[in-house]
Amino acid sequence: MRIAYVQMKIGFGDKEANLRHAADLIAACPADLYVLPELCNTGYLFASRRQTQDLAEAIPQGPTCEFYAGLARRHNCYLVAGMAEKCAHSLFNSAALFGPHGYIDVYRKIHLFDEEKICFDPGDKPWRIHDLGMARIGMMICFDWMFPEAMRTLALAGADIVCHAANLVMPYCQDAMITRCLENGVFAVTANRVGQDIQGEKSLSFTGKSQIVAPRGVLLHRAGEREPAVFAMEIDPVLARNKLINSRNDLLGDRRPEFYRVSSNPDEPEPNVGRLRGGR
Q1: Which of 9, 15, 109, 209 is catalytic?
Q2: Burial class (CB in 10 A: 0-12, 13-18, 19+), 141
Q3: Options 3.30.310.50, 3.60.110.10, 3.50.30.40, 3.40.50.720; which CATH number does 2-245 get?
Q4: Active-site residue (options: 77, 119, 142, 163)
Q5: What is the pLDDT along the chain (280 residues), one digit of tens a residue?
């Protein structure tokens, strides 16, 4: 199958222009699966929770979902795209999955970064795997990369490809995702954005360098830091199902989860957590 990242330059709050930009990039590069950035219809740097509320939409009933579902039908493809989700009294930083027959599912970001904790509620759904026939995929969003448990959970659930929608501002993620793919034996598509968001005296610059990484930790392709880009390449998802390192070692089969707890008694609190976090 052909998988692609879509690296965008996003205008804050300008949904119409952002959606048109995404559509133009997708039309320029045929693929079976596209991954778009986090919050790619609105931009990232919300001034307040109220502003987030104003720009957020219901999933899948909102106009952005309708637009992406139409794109997926028109191009006979699957796509993952980030957006602010409004659900009852909650606001989530979400990524929605669409296919040729419309909306499929939503993932709500579990690990919120910095001021996201003011504007969004933490995700309330576990990670799920979706079998597209060609491959099994899972979704994660931006700062999830910092937590090895995120990608490991998706790998244990059977993901061949991790679709990573991102608005990266720190310089570490792209290289860290190479390690994540190596330690879990999966493909990953990180779709980042370029440019800036500015709100009054606050601004954020995004690092670009969207990429595709193979299960052995091989960087297959990486975009530049400043310009929008779309890139697709053919992969064999079955390669992600071979977890053997050699004839005696299996990435997932050799795990010893019974030893991965701080406390040996599951009913006891972890005794050293306070000290490890700088407490007494």
Answers
A1: 109
A2: buried
A3: 3.60.110.10
A4: 142
A5: 999 999 999 999 999 999 999 999 999 999 999 999 999 999 999 999 999 999 999 999 999 999 999 999 999 999 999 999 999 999 999 999 999 999 999 999 999 999 999 999 999 999 999 999 999 999 999 999 999 999 999 999 999 999 999 999 999 999 999 999 999 999 999 999 999 999 999 999 999 999 999 999 999 999 999 999 999 999 999 999 999 999 999 999 999 999 998 865 656 655 444 444 444 3
Contacting residues for 61 by C-beta, under 8 A, at least 6 apart: none
Among candidate residues 9, 38, 86, 209, the one labeled active-site is: 38
C-alpha–C-alpha distance, residues 123 and 233, integer Å: 31
Q: Tell me, yes or no, if 16 is annotated catalytic.
A: no
Catalytic residue list contains 202: no
Task: Report yes or no on whether pTM surpasses 0.70.
Answer: yes
